[in-house]
Structures are given as C-alpha cells and as structure tokens.
C-alpha cells in the first residue's frame, strides 16, 4: 500500500539530485526572456555576449587571480579528463582517488600510451586521499568534492613538488558551492549541471598562466591531439567568447542566470554558507538517530554539497527512496556503483536549507512507519 507523507512535512521543492541538480524556475523562464540567442549562430554577438558574461561572472564569483582565464569547451568534465591527459600532463601524473571521479581521471592518464605509469594514491570511499610530493610527477590531480561518496578535500598545492608541477582540481560538484583559493591550483574545472543548475555537455576551467603555457608547449611538441580535445584551441576560442563546436545555448542561458543570481546574493561566500547550513541540517539529524549515520566519518571531510547518509541494515533504503519519490521527493539514491544502503542528498546553492530539514522530517515519518 502506498504511503502518503503529510503535506505539512513536505519540502517546498523536492529535488535533491546530486547532478543533474535542481534548476531554479527563474533560470528556465529566462529562456523566454532572451529569444534572440536561441536558434542563432554561436559565433555571432548574441551568443558571444552571453559567453562573455559567463566568463566574467565565473571569474568574479571564484575570485580568479590576475592572469588566470576562464576557458570553456564542449563535452563536460569527462571530456576535460582527456583534454588534461593530452595537453597538461607531460610525462607523469599523480592522482588522489577516493571515489568515482578521481578514479576515472586516474584511469585516463594510466592508459595513455605516451605517458609514464601514473601514481595513484587511493583511499576507501567515505574518506579522502591526499597527494604527496614525488620526483618526476609534473601534474597532480584531485577532486575538490567527490560526488559519488560525499567527501571533500581542501584545494592546496603539493608541498615540495618539483618546480613547475601543476595541480589539476576536479571541481565538478564543488565549484560555486565550496570556498576556494584559486592561487592554490592551476586548473579548476567543472561542469554546469551541479552547483550552477544548468544542463551538461559543457566544461569550464579556470586556468593559470602556467597551465596555459604547459598546454602550448605540449601541443607544440609533436604529440597527436585531436582538435576537439586541444586545450590551446579551447583557449583561443574562449578568448573570442565562443566554443569550437556549437554549444547548447539553453545551457549557457541558465548558467549565466545562475552566476548572476549567486553574485547578486553575495557571491561565493554566500553560496558556501548556504550549502553549509543545509549540510548541518542533514548531518545533525543523522547523528541524532540510532538508525542513521554520516557515511564520511571525519566531520572535516564531509561534503557540504553532497551528503551521504548510511541507514541501518534493517531499514531498506531502496524502499524509503521509493516512498519519498511517490511523494515528490526526488533523486536521493546512493551512487549506483557504491552499492550502499544509503541516501545521497544534493545540497547545492539552489536548494533551500529549510527543504533539507523538511526532507529529514519526511525520512523520519517513513522510517517510523516501515
């Protein structure tokens, strides 16, 4: 028999996806406000002006240092792993792998026939792996936030690394939601379907001068690099406020609106505090229950944008998730490959902290009746 959750317990908005994430209604309505950009060439002023607005807004939001540039290209973060493998790693990479995203990038460089074997520092899901200096490594790579497990790591350069070594930070689910000092990294790359509430199919990266110089040197050195995966090509096009291939213009519209919304409310500091408030609601609730617990055991490593909560084995998380979905609460399922009896909650800036608190009350209601 279906279970109905009382309406006074339900969140105002039941979308808690970890990516794609909640899209604000204003973002969607913005598509009707700017018809001039839809169905037009991405190399003409209406779309190029939109890209220019995004690049300037992201630079302001994330505090891009002098000389750093906001670059964008087609294909999403998955494509950027190949871009970085081809254009930013000269000989050898080291990876921190503590979830699906870090592991996938590590596999990309490990399989590259023109690179030396990558070093991979692994940690069990639910904890964080940390990079460490090693001779011969010219590119270090780590996630800022691991979407699959709900663990986050600080963004900081590797002490005692070889001169000229780059730090590449996967910020797919962290950018726009977690504090960051971009002087501590050379490539802070992400996609717009998480904190920025847009659709996928695009990657953005804030690149240091050293990263752009590395790409130019590697690409001039004779390594075969498809044009679609050329970082120098992406830089050249971005400086013209365009992408190599036609982008999804609707994504650009929603992304631009989200960046403006964040800046208008107080920028990254405001967004990060809002996410932290949601996370406190979730983790305090879990720690107060004898049948729930945060999956990430160290509080400092618990993500404030993707929360993972283990349920007691006697409680079927799949059944809880199904009942929540029947009542309009969506996408709180665990990462499929993790295979845990848990809830995973996206707490990006668009999500109201009060809605996270309402979600926990709904879980209480369901568990009490199962």
TrEMBL record:
Keyword check for Amino-acid biosynthesis: yes
Keywords assigned: Amino-acid biosynthesis, Aminotransferase, Cytoplasm, Pyridoxal phosphate, Pyridoxine biosynthesis, Serine biosynthesis, Transferase
Matching InterPro entries: Aminotrans_V_dom, Pser_aminoTfrase, Pser_aminoTfrase_mycobac, PyrdxlP-dep_Trfase, PyrdxlP-dep_Trfase_major, PyrdxlP-dep_Trfase_small
EC assignment: 2.6.1.52
Annotated pathway: Amino-acid biosynthesis; L-serine biosynthesis; L-serine from 3-phospho-D-glycerate: step 2/3
Gene3D superfamilies: Aspartate Aminotransferase, domain 1 (3.90.1150.10), Type I PLP-dependent aspartate aminotransferase-like (Major domain) (3.40.640.10)
Catalytic function, reaction form: O-phospho-L-serine + 2-oxoglutarate = 3-phosphooxypyruvate + L-glutamate; 4-(phosphooxy)-L-threonine + 2-oxoglutarate = (R)-3-hydroxy-2-oxo-4-phosphooxybutanoate + L-glutamate
Gene Ontology MF annotations: O-phospho-L-serine:2-oxoglutarate aminotransferase activity
Enzyme class: transferase
Residue span(s) of domain Aminotransferase class V: 141-330
Function: Catalyzes the reversible conversion of 3-phosphohydroxypyruvate to phosphoserine and of 3-hydroxy-2-oxo-4-phosphonooxybutanoate to phosphohydroxythreonine.
PANTHER family tied to this protein: ALANINE--GLYOXYLATE AMINOTRANSFERASE, AMINOTRANSFERASE CLASS V
NCBIfam families for this protein: serC_3
Family: Belongs to the class-V pyridoxal-phosphate-dependent aminotransferase family. SerC subfamily.
Protein name: phosphoserine transaminase
Native source species: Myceligenerans pegani
